[in-house]
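Structure in, sequence out. Go:
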């Protein structure tokens, strides 16, 4: 959100939310933790190291190494069509959006293994793009060009597809898991019905509303405006609906791999702006499981937040709960107008003391087959052993809840 817009809406929105007590909706910061998750499958998460300032060739090699550590691509037959879903909330460069180099590397890898068509697509956030039954404002295509991703897609021989360009009726209903917090089926883009496989390529970043944005949160980019309105308006279960949005039949049947370039990390505020951290030893993170991927990706975000100092106004912007509430009301207003905004529920932002604070992940364990037993494997020789060990400890079974996360 731009500072000018934020200040414009702050006064009116504070009047809406100020009178609502913290427990209006029966939720605490740790909602959903009453029932411990069952123990899930042993799941490999591959790490490929990327040194600071690495060349494009080195990054592409790391992407290939990470991907080939977690899958043999036996699911891919010659002539298949593959859809790559990046994170393109804005037109800002990586890590505010997915790494163009990583996307190009994945296209080359898939085409080299026989994919006939590799299609890269998304629909950006409502601050930049809004689709309605009456028309369209903004362009994800222009944002992909601005971020540098479009050039990488073209150079690698991929295609681009933008959901809003196909129009309001180019979506279909896909229901999440039974008993979810969603009131209606999710409206998903029809292009997903035309491909055999889906590859998810998020980024590793802070998020003003959700706390963080990894693979599970990236599913929002699929949804039509009315689905996004329900998601943000009914904000008391915002985090749970994020996880449940990944249980629609299309994603369960077709999503094969989740891979993030994380040699740059957006460590504060997010999703479009914040402090960019460039560690001496960056990573590419890959898994067949979106939950396992996100456990390690969030641990890596927390690892890099240890090395930064946030003070004054930037601390408030990054951490204070009312900033998240105002920002969510702003989004609801953009999606549906003042009436849905006034009726919207109160958002409680995730803490970031450990990965066990994350309500999105905690719900994902329940709806996606249990908490993965993560096994971290080095995909190349550039992964420092101490980083591998720290991330293994942060994601180890059984969960090691901090005192803060239990309050």
């Amino acid at each position: 959100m731009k500072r000018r817009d934020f200040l414009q809406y702050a006064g009116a929105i504070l009047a809406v939310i100020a009178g609502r007590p913290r427990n209006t909706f029966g939720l605490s910061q740790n909602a959903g933790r009453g029932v411990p998750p069952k123990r899930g499958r042993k799941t490999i998460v591959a790490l490929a190291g990327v040194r600071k300032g690495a060349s494009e060739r080195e990054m592409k090699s790391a992407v290939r190494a990470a991907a080939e550590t977690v899958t043999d691509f036996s699911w891919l037959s010659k002539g298949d069509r593959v859809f790559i879903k990046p994170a393109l909330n804005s037109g800002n460069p990586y890590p505010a959006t997915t790494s163009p180099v990583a996307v190009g590397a994945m296209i080359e890898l898939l085409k080299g293994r026989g994919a006939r068509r590799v299609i890269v697509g998304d629909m950006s956030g409502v601050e930049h793009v809004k689709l309605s039954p009456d028309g369209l404002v903004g362009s994800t295509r222009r944002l992909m060009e601005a971020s540098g991703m479009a050039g990488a897609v073209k150079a690698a021989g991929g295609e681009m597809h933008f959901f809003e360009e196909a129009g309001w009726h180019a979506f279909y209903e896909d229901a999440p898991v039974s008993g979810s917090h969603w009131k209606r089926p999710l409206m998903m883009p029809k292009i997903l019905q035309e491909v055999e496989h889906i590859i998810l390529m998020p980024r590793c970043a802070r998020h003003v509303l959700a706390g963080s944005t990894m693979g599970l949160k990236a599913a929002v980019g699929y949804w039509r405006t009315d689905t996004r309105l329900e998601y943000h308006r009914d904000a008391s279960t915002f985090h749970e609906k994020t996880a449940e949005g990944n249980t629609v039949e299309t994603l369960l049947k077709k999503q094969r791999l989740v891979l993030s370039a994380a040699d740059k990390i957006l460590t504060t505020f997010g999703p479009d702006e914040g402090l960019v951290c460039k560690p001496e030893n960056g990573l590419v993170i890959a898994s067949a499981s979106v939950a396992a991927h996100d456990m390690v990706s969030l641990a890596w975000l927390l690892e890099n937040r240890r090395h930064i100092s946030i003070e004054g106004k930037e601390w408030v912007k990054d951490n204070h709960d009312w900033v998240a509430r105002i920002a969510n009301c702003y989004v609801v207003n953009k999606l549906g107008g003042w009436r849905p905004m006034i009726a919207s529920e109160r958002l409680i932002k995730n803490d970031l003391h450990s990965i066990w604070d994350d309500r999105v992940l905690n719900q994902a364990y329940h709806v996606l087959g249990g908490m993965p037993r993560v096994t971290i494997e080095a995909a190349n020789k550039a992964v420092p052993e101490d980083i591998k060990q720290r991330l293994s400890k942060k994601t180890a079974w059984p969960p090691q809840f901090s005192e803060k996360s239990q309050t």
